[in-house]
Amino acid sequence: MSEKKKFNIEYEIKSSPRILYTFLNEANGLTQWFADDVSVRDQIYTFTWDDEKQNAKLVALKENKLVRFKWIDDEPQCYFEMEIIQDELTNDVALSITDFATEETIAERKQIWDNQIDYLISTLGA
C-alpha cells in the first residue's frame, strides 16, 4: 500500500467565520453539506454516506477558526482539517482543507472536496 501524502486546497467563501464554523463542527451543519447523516458522541463523529458509516475523532478545535478530525481506521499521521482563514485587510474569508491521500488518489480526493465545498457554498447561499 502506498504511503499517503498531505495535500492542501483553499476555497474562497463569502460567509462570516462564525456562520461557516457552525457548518464545520456541528452535526446538523455537517449533515447539510458534508455527509448524508452525522451524529456525535464523546468527540466521535459518525459520518454516513449511502448507508456506509465512518467514524472520526475530533482531535482539534479552535472556535470560529479550525476543526481537525482523525478517521478512526486511518493511518496514525493522517487527519483532515478545515481551517477558516480571514484576511485582515480585506476581511475576505477562505476555507483551507488539509487532507491525506495516496499519490494515485489525490486528484480524485481533490475533486470530492471541490464538489463538497461547492455544495457547502450553495447551502450557505454564499
From TrEMBL:
The protein, known as: START-like domain-containing protein
Record organism: Mucilaginibacter lutimaris
Domain START-like: from-to ranges: 1-126
Pfam families noted in UniProt: START_2
